Amino acid sequence: MSAEEIKAAPKKKKAKVANPKEVSVDQATIQMLAKAQADGCDTIFDRAVTMKPCNIGEQGTCCKVCSQGPCRLPLPKKGIEGKDVRKGLCGATPETIAARNFARMVAAGSAAHSDHGRGVAEVFLAAARGETTDFGIQDTEKLLQIAPDYGVATTVMVEGDDGEKVEQERDLMEIAEDVGVKALAQWGQQEGEIVYAKRAPEARYDLWKELDVIPRGIDREIVEIMHRTHMGVDQDFRNLTKQMTRAALADGWAGAMIATDLQDVMFGTPYPIQGEINLGVLKEENVNIIVHGHEPLLSEMIVVASQDPEIIEYAKSKGAAGITLAGMCCTANEILVRHGLPIAGNYLQQELAVVTGALDAMVVDVQCVMENLANIAECYHTKIITTNPRAMMESGDAEHIEFDEHHALEDAKKIVRAAIDNYTTREQEVMIPTQKEKMVVGFSYEAIGYHLGGTFRGSYVPLNDNIINGRIRGIAGVVGCNNARTIHDAAHLTLIKELLKNDVIVLTTGCTAMACGKAGLLTPESAGVYCGPGLAEVCETVGIPPVLHMGACVDNSRILLAATEVVKAGGLGKDISDLPAAGCAPEWMSEKAIAIGHYFVTSGVYTIFGVGLPVNGAPRFKKHLFEELEDIYGGKWDMIVDPLDQAAAIIAHIDKKRAALGLDTKKERVLMDMASRQALDAA
Predict the structure, then answer these.
(1) What is the pLDDT of residues 23-75, one digit of tens each?
(2) How far apart are CA 415 and CA 361, in angstroms?
(3) 439-682 domain in CATH 3.40.50.2030?
């Protein structure tokens, strides 16, 4: 080709890519994103540059529930002047369309967490019946604690030697079987009430009863949403909101809560433990395996398999120094809080773990698993292994090794051996970032009580006392996903640091918890760096971090129960809605987040979402969520993008609740006794 021809040839348009330094605050992520781009592999960060969101979808007013559409009803550029005349072909208003779409997100999110819970309940029941020997009962105390919720007796009257009736403890596996049967029935139950509704403060339960929103059964409420949002059924956004409340409560106070409880019984209730986080936990000389997804049933067995001496010897026979097992997303949180095993990263880092060139297998189950993993694995040697029949990949490069609880350890060993065999196929240059941080995690609501009150008098009373006396201003639950439309981890950290500075203690789960870990916020020492003087004093005295890692996203139910324990401890009102507390999901992404948000709102919590909410195109529906729900439930939705504005709104809400409790005036700091707290409640 001549110089003239080269000059005349059409120029290839250079593909747009993300600027690594502008899309994340995490240095390991920045380094691996630059490597991926140099290797010619696109990631979600690059696709976020080239793929723009639909502006009508963002407003929530695109309807595609029948083939006459999609009907798109954007807000007029000048806003609504006079009567809103926008209608779909069938006459559906923007309010109906937005409420349907929102309700379907609640249904999908509730289904995801609740189906996780169903799987756990099925395995729990199989273990109780002796149908699998790989799973058992680790926390007998928790089993005995939850049994009465299901109406399961823990003792039985038997005839003694003298003919008198005496009380005797029942066999633990019999108790477990009865609990398993009744727990599993919560999904198919068609009438009555979910059993955990009465775990809520009495005032909250009574309010739900009065409003007729206590879920009858998990599956029933989700199915009813899908029916009501079919073309031509429910056309009242307030009525749709009521039904999505039932489904969301079925998630938070049943499906997700059951999952957490039964996992604790089978694998152990988390108590504080140390771990490490970020891509730097991978080791070049080891076989590196990442478990990714949300269900701990398989990952628990992979933990056992990877520590088996025979399996470790097999890895050494292939030239490896050993095995490194790490987690990604909420499966990571599950193996971290129970075993202290390392976390490689949160949602937006999953492709980048492959980019290191050191990952021999990524083992995935369900939820938040990017389909592009199979594509990016083609650039490297990583084996992608799917394990769940509900979540397979079309790509021929992804191998499916199905996990069956009846021979769980055998399946886990097969998966680990496949990773070891793949170790020998490494060809690319390995680049593992050096970044990793130590953290203290595993603050179940039981563990918080223990840390505050000790072994023999575990209690939330010290927490309440310090809220009452002003050392702690209030409580914030900051949870949720990462989102490629935001700067990775930035909103989480900006918000949380601002809250800590203002003496607000933070409870966290999921990808937010991982962002905090990478930034060094999950250590007791961080209190002296980031907290106001009151919160710092409490954390240093008790020996806890100012941000308490409570587990995976399914474990948001732990936050509900922690709030309930605060109410029970006295002095801060009679309901969750009375507490100086709020919630936020700064970088939310999935439908699960919408379900979680709604069960917090309807449990009485002021709940802020960042990024955006698909409701702006329906002003009356938006007003219902953002204003009217507060008069009904004591909690409400809000949408604020800027994390500093989120912090200001949370602090203002906490101060409003403190004022309502009479805590806004400076008082002498005194130790409150129960009579004093009861007097505050009566006032």
Answers:
(1) 999 999 999 999 999 999 999 999 999 999 999 999 999 999 999 989 999 99
(2) 9
(3) yes
